[in-house]
Design goal:
Chain lengths: ~210, ~70
Amino acid sequence: MSGSTPLIEVLLHARSVIHEISAGSQSALSFPVKLQGQILPAFCKLMSKKTPPEYTIKLQKVDVQVRSLRGQLMRYENPHYALIRFSSDQSICWQRFVICKEMAHLVLDVEDSHLTKNVESHIQALISEIRTIELDGALESEYCAMVLALEILVPWKLRPQVHVMRAEGASDLQIAERCRTPEKFINLLLSEFYQKTSRRMNEVLDRDIE
Amino acid sequence: MVEGRSPAASEREGWMEQTELDRLKARIEVERKNGLKDIKFFPADVSNATVESFAKDVNEMLNGKEVPITDLD
């Protein structure tokens, strides 16, 4: 698919964010990874390196009850900044995930094909059940952004803790509560396919660092 | 549509009420002039959504009341 981001690149971006957190944060990396105290400043720092002098990310929690939408990102240039709106009508875990996923677009969507040019066709692609047809280049980045959000909220570095929790009998929901991440994505994280793929690629990256 | 006026009558007169999608497109046009480069959405339940109903939800979020952010860490 044209303009797609290989998974290994998504994982590299996750490591960059986690590296910024480890380098810049007062508190150590632990569950739950702090959204405003750690992840947001890390993204601002990474984006400021790309578009100096200073990149800002504004968060707006909106009192709205809408069925089809959890949040949205609006990204501006000259000056460069991003505005993330999210619905108050969802759990804190979901609010954190939505914000993190929208921030993920900032580092992932560097190609023109990832940008939403035609809002009508983009919405059509989002609400369509037909996932196998390439309706919109921007749709591809949606999946990459979700994986990046998950790899930041449950970083590879802390993954052994998740496996210990599981070995001690913790349910997906209990792990989700500990990580402050929606249970749906903990289900995905702990699925055989995801674990296998994430482990294989992260181990390649670990070897490269050594 | 204005009450009592048929779609055909509105069309004949060259006047149609703005849809939610029209409103969203107009807003995005304005934002593009302000430097908007990209817009993305995080969909929720879209099982019965149409482009028009989704656009309505986007417009509601764009125009919704901002509330204080608490306890995201």
